[in-house]
């Protein structure tokens, strides 16, 4: 990496990158300890119910798996590629897996914590409420997919290919959108396609969240649920 890309880097610039990486690793280890040590204490004291023990073990496994994925991702950036003269970088596939695992871990931890702290609303199972729940789950999946596509953008430095919006350069659909063969490779390895997909998914996510908010306004919902939907719209717009 130093010879092919950063040969003019100063020691101070290298230290900045090194400490960023070191801090990230140490923070991840602290997160693991902050989770595992209290969990072991609560388990030993007998404060966990049988279902909760299952949740604790699952989250513990996810914490360890996340660390393993992080090591596996960084390893791909250190491997020698004698047949490639490309800029050294980690695998975009492993980066997406690392980010996806982190999102699952965070969401599962938050869901478990809120389930214990806040009593569940017992609402009548109307047709509208069922549709709202289904639509919320679909929107969640779309947002998750958008975030994963962002990992591919980062892994391929695809954000550097086009920096105009809403058009990509002078065109709505760029010429090199399907330049790779076979066609499926473009979705994961063509920087232009990866950025194009991320744009489309981002717009679709904001649209879905807005539609979810408007639909929720037609249904009588508890104050806490309404606050959650409104907050979701605010964060989507800010993002």
Automatic annotation (TrEMBL):
Membrane spanning stretches: 26-43, 55-74, 94-118, 139-162, 198-216
Alphabetic keyword roster: Heme biosynthesis, Iron, Membrane, Metal-binding, Oxidoreductase, Transmembrane, Transmembrane helix
Cofactor(s) the protein requires to work: heme b
Keyword Oxidoreductase: yes
Membrane association type: Multi-pass membrane protein
Top-level taxon: Eukaryota
Gene Ontology molecular-function annotations: heme A synthase activity; metal ion binding; oxidoreductase activity, acting on NAD(P)H, heme protein as acceptor
Metabolic or biological pathway, per its Swiss-Prot or TrEMBL entry: Porphyrin-containing compound metabolism; heme A biosynthesis; heme A from heme O: step 1/1
Reactions catalysed, as given in the entry: Fe(II)-heme o + 2 A + H2O = Fe(II)-heme a + 2 AH2
GO biological process: heme A biosynthetic process
Subcellular localization(s) per the UniProt record: Membrane
Main location: membrane
Annotated GO CC locations: mitochondrial inner membrane
The name this protein goes by in its record: COX15 protein
Species of origin: Pardalotus punctatus
């Amino acid at each position: 990496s130093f010879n092919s890309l950063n040969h003019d880097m100063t020691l101070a610039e290298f230290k900045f990158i090194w400490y960023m990486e070191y801090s990230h690793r140490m923070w991840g280890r602290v997160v693991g300890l902050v989770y595992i040590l209290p969990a072991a204490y609560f388990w030993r004291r007998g404060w966990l119910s049988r279902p909760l023990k299952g949740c604790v073990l699952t989250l513990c496994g996810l914490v360890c798996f996340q660390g393993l994925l992080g090591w596996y991702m960084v390893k791909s950036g250190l491997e020698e590629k004698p047949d490639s003269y490309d800029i050294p970088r980690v695998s975009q596939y492993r980066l997406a897996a690392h980010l996806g695992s982190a999102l699952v871990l965070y969401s599962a931890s938050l869901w478990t914590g809120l389930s214990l702290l806040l009593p569940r609303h017992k609402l009548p199972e109307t047709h509208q409420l069922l549709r709202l729940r289904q639509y919320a789950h679909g929107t969640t999946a779309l947002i998750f997919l958008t975030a994963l596509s962002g990992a591919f953008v980062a892994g391929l430095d695809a954000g550097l290919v086009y920096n105009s919006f809403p058009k990509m350069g002078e065109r709505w659909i760029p010429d090199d959108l399907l330049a790779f063969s076979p066609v499926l490779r473009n979705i994961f390895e063509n920087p232009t396609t990866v950025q194009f997909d991320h744009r489309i998914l981002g717009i679709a996510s904001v649209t879905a969240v807005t539609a979810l908010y408007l639909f929720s306004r037609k249904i009588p919902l508890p104050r806490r649920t309404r606050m959650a939907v409104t907050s979701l719209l605010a964060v989507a717009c800010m993002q």
